[in-house]
Amino acid sequence: MFADMILEAEGFAEQAELFELAPAKINLALHVVGRRDDGYHLLESIVTFADRGDRLAFSAAETDRFTLSGRFSPLLGDAEAADGNNLVLKARDRLRQLLRNKGQAAPPVAIHLEKNLPVAAGIGGGSADAAAALRGLVRLWGAEVSENELGELGLSLGADVPMCIRGEALMAKGIGEELTALSSLPSLSLVLGNPLIGVSTPDIFRRLSNRENPPIVEQGDNWLAYLKTLRNDLEPPARSLVREIDEISNLIGAEGASLVRMSGSGATCFGIFSSKAQAETAAANLSSRRPDWYFQAVQTVGAKI
């Protein structure tokens, strides 16, 4: 049944009217600097986006439709049963309501999600998919919606959605809604690695030993040297929960990465390599050693150097 649905979905995707990449989001650094009275943690993070990720396809339809395919789609369950729990569908419904309140049309749409990224992996996931859904539907419906409106709608779906809508190198502060472009951050050659063990973000935050850590200091001229002075405050509690993070970090480092760090709440780790070719070689080597894990060479957005 599920295989039949995937074949049908891929056939639709080939004939779709437009496509949106939902790129992997990488937290190059993430500092937890406080906590609000409502329980939300205050963060400072240097964020960038990869040239690989999930892929969404959109087409006009007689009735709303949502289909799935891709390596990690089985982890999302049956598309027919997703209902309003999937962030892509929540994004569709909330954008539709916003447009109808403004007197704009938002007709039925068929959406196909090709799930290429691990789930609960600290690299965007559902937030990136929701952001891509919003961008794609704005295009498909010819919607007239301001950047601020789209950002506020995204924030209602999740703290990471506004930065995923923008999809550029950013400094994120607050709970993730205070965004400043980092135009000087260079494009980086990375290897992403994940042991395919999902990590609960609330569990990670509950294990934090300190929620009042030093903020990110002002950027230096050498980005790599600067990044090495920073950290991910969620990495120690994540390593205490998922011991495989130690192993995957060591494996990436042994391939010659100049910096290895965990992204977001994990368990995905990244290694920075000096060239795209070196990253691709490292990813191939790692995939051969651990074919049961996820490894991917990516190039991030950013200034050319």
TrEMBL record:
Reaction equation(s) it catalyzes: 4-CDP-2-C-methyl-D-erythritol + ATP = 4-CDP-2-C-methyl-D-erythritol 2-phosphate + ADP + H(+)
Residues annotated as the enzyme's active site: K25, D160
EC annotation? 2.7.1.148
Task: Classify the source by domain of life.
Answer: Bacteria
Q: In which pathway does it act?
A: Isoprenoid biosynthesis; isopentenyl diphosphate biosynthesis via DXP pathway; isopentenyl diphosphate from 1-deoxy-D-xylulose 5-phosphate: step 3/6
Any Pfam family from its record, for instance, is GHMP_kinases_N
Q: InterPro entries attached here?
A: GHMP_kinase_C_dom (IPR013750), GHMP_kinase_C_sf (IPR036554), GHMP_kinase_N_dom (IPR006204), IspE (IPR004424), Ribosomal_Su5_D2-typ_SF (IPR020568), Ribsml_uS5_D2-typ_fold_subgr (IPR014721)
Domain GHMP kinase N-terminal, chain residue ranges per copy: 86-167
Tell me which residues make up the GHMP kinase C-terminal domain: 232-288
GO molecular-function annotation terms?
A: 4-(cytidine 5'-diphospho)-2-C-methyl-D-erythritol kinase activity; ATP binding
Residues binding ATP, per UniProt: P118, V119, A120, A121, G122, I123, G124, G125, G126, S127, A128
GO BP: any one term:
terpenoid biosynthetic process
Q: Which UniProt keywords apply?
A: ATP-binding, Isoprene biosynthesis, Kinase, Nucleotide-binding, Transferase
Q: Which residues form a coiled coil?
A: none
The similarity annotation says: Belongs to the GHMP kinase family. IspE subfamily.
> What role does this protein play?
Catalyzes the phosphorylation of the position 2 hydroxy group of 4-diphosphocytidyl-2C-methyl-D-erythritol.
Stated name of the protein: 4-diphosphocytidyl-2-C-methyl-D-erythritol kinase
Species of origin reads Neorhizobium alkalisoli
| Source species taxonomy | Bacteria, Pseudomonadati, Pseudomonadota, Alphaproteobacteria, Hyphomicrobiales
